[in-house]
Amino acid sequence: MKQISQSKKIWRRFCRNKLAVLGLIMLILFVLLSVLAPLLTDYDPNRSNLRNRNLPPSGEHLLGTDDMGRDILARTLYGGRISLSVGLVSVGISLSIGVILGATAGFFGGMVDTVIMRIADVFYSFPFMILAITISSIFGPSIYNTMIILGVLSWPSSARLLRAEFLKLKSTDFSLAATALGANPTRVMFRHILPNAISPLLVSATLGVASAILSEAGLSFLGLGVPPPAPSWGNMLNRARPLHILASMPWMWLPPGIAIFIIVLSINFVGDGLRDAFDPRQVMD
């Protein structure tokens, strides 16, 4: 009987989850729309034209214009670049810190584990958004500050997850055999144990991207994230806060709001699909 590789088994399990497949398709679509933004619109997302202020959707401006006369479609497409970039980069920072500290805590244990986990507890003791708002207020709104702040504040969850996996795997036969053969701790940690602990971390990272996009939108909505005139979905919503815009100009807030809703929902669907696909208890039909 022909053996099926582990990667193919994981992919088949993932494809069995129709919502996860739909989420992946929508995620790819949004990435393509953001990357191909210059080909999809001729308008500069930052160029103001006060003669075209607050125009409703039309043949010239498919999604209308904002209070500065800027094309909403162009700002939504280009805003996807920034919002998705913030999500990916901040999760990359979070994983870099979390993998190093979580692996170290789980592998060495003892006082090292205690110190790292108590530092994580300090981070957990503060409400995430309150701390992010405070730090953003101190350093000022900037796309780079937003990436760093969200990444640095998010590492405890990935560190704890990886620590638990390391505590479970460091006493397995392959880990003990590598140590007995003289492999140094760094090699055992990152060459032998980490590849076997990466599955739950991948699922966590996927869901972390959605959380980071929502956090960036929240900070930008408060004027503490990506500063104008650079478009992001969060600061587009910030521009639409006045009551008269909310009541009579829905084209200014619906596109970024729907974009955030769809992309976050899609990422969560993909995360759920990955969780089921990597679950060893799942049995192929």
Layout of SSEs?
Layout: H1 6-16, H2 18-35, H3 37-40, H4 72-108, H5 110-124, H6 128-139, H7 143-169, H8 173-180, H9 185-221, H10 233-239, H11 243-248, H12 254-278
Your description of this structure?
The chain has about 280 residues and is an all-alpha fold. It has a single domain (about 15-35, about 80-280), classed as MetI-like fold, CATH 1.10.3720.10. It has twelve helices and no strands. Helix 9 runs parallel beside helix 10 (about 235-240). The longest helix has about 35 residues, at about 70-110. The two termini are about 15 Å apart. The model has no long low-confidence stretch (mean pLDDT about 85).
In short:
The chain has one domain (17-33, 80-278): MetI-like fold. 73% of the residues lie in helices and 0% in strands.
